[in-house]
Design a protein that fits this description.
about 325 residues; globular; about 10% strand; alpha/beta; two-stranded parallel sheet; 4-stranded mixed β-sheet
Length: about 325
């Protein structure tokens, strides 16, 4: 519901800012659907649309809200939008998806060969459904050839601000960011992400290797060790692991270690070195570099952000 009303709220508010400066409003905001009334949240909410798809011949910007519930069923339920979105884009409109709205946008084929972002929790499902789209992990906003996407949940506000700046100016976008209390230049959702190894595949040996890594991550684990354990040649094992998990073996081990470190920083009073040793690192510089690459924050920044008790010491 919010992903439907919030863009409307943002663009209408910008119109009011412009009118207060004696300028002409720039946005003509319309809720468009295949029928006049849409039931949401099992009928808990009702949205009354401004126009039907067939009535809107030419748009400048199409904003696709987030989908909810079963994603595949949600995409199927919104098939009427797909040819309309394609037609609007070919007719010169820009198209933006908010959060899981990327699934509907990708279903149009317009994202094939392009970059895209969505909620981190749905990354594996997105890659499985749309292998021809380059999903950018951790990104808040992507833009390519007039097609935009945003990361998870409330990060769509950053895309809305981005669009406000593009269609008006930086000054108006800053005013909107202050009005809505949004960090205007936040560019990553990395530190919100929780790594859950991709196990939605049918390769039993690789699943076994994933489980072994997750149980023994503090130990030194080598590719040869894993390949021998499952009686698979090294090159074949590396290829199958990458195909099944979307990570190299080294990347997977790093992500498991960093996820464990994050939990310790959130829930314990251990210092940086103690956590580093517990998750299997001995080189402070290497640990700091990998942790920041994955989360976007240094170990100290992450601990202070998410562990209130330690931050107060």
């Amino acid at each position: 519901m919010a992903a439907v009303t919030d863009p409307q709220y943002m663009f209408n508010a910008v119109n009011e800012f412009l009118k207060a400066e004696k300028k002409e409003p720039i946005f003509n905001v319309q809720l468009v659907a295949s029928k006049k009334e849409i039931q949401l949240n099992n009928g808990a909410f009702s949205v009354h649309t401004d126009a039907l798809l067939r009535e809107v011949k030419k748009a400048d910007l199409v904003v696709i809200p987030a989908l909810s519930g079963d994603i595949k069923k949600a995409v199927d339920a919104n098939q009427d939008f797909i040819p309309w979105i394609i037609g609007q884009y070919k007719n010169g409109a820009e198209v933006a998806s908010l959060c899981t709205g990327a699934f509907l946008l990708a279903s149009t084929g317009l994202l094939n060969g392009k970059k895209c972002s969505t909620h981190w929790l749905f990354a594996n499902e997105f890659r499985n459904m749309f292998p021809g789209v380059e999903l950018v992990d951790g990104s808040i906003i992507t833009e390519e050839q007039g097609i935009y996407s945003s990361g998870g949940a409330n990060s769509y506000w950053n895309l809305l601000l981005y669009l406000v700046e593009k269609y008006t100016n930086r000054e108006t976008a800053i005013l909107a960011s202050k009005y809505f209390a949004i960090d205007i230049d936040r560019s990553s959702q990395s530190f919100f992400m929780i790594f859950n190894g991709q196990k939605d595949h049918a390769d039993g040996a690789i699943k076994g290797a994933q489980v072994f890594i997750e149980k023994n991550f503090p130990d030194k684990i080598t590719v040869d060790q894993l390949a021998d354990m499952f009686a698979i040649g090294r090159r074949s094992f590396e290829r199958r692991f990458k195909k099944a998990t979307n990570n190299t073996i080294a990347e997977y081990i790093q992500r498991v270690k960093v996820e464990a470190a994050k939990r310790k920083f959130e829930n314990s009073r251990q210092n940086i070195n103690e956590v580093m040793y517990d998750v299997g690192y001995t080189d402070t510089k290497a640990f700091r570099t990998i942790f920041k690459k994955v989360t976007g924050l240094t170990p100290i920044e992450y601990r202070n952000k998410y562990n209130k008790q330690v931050a107060l010491i």
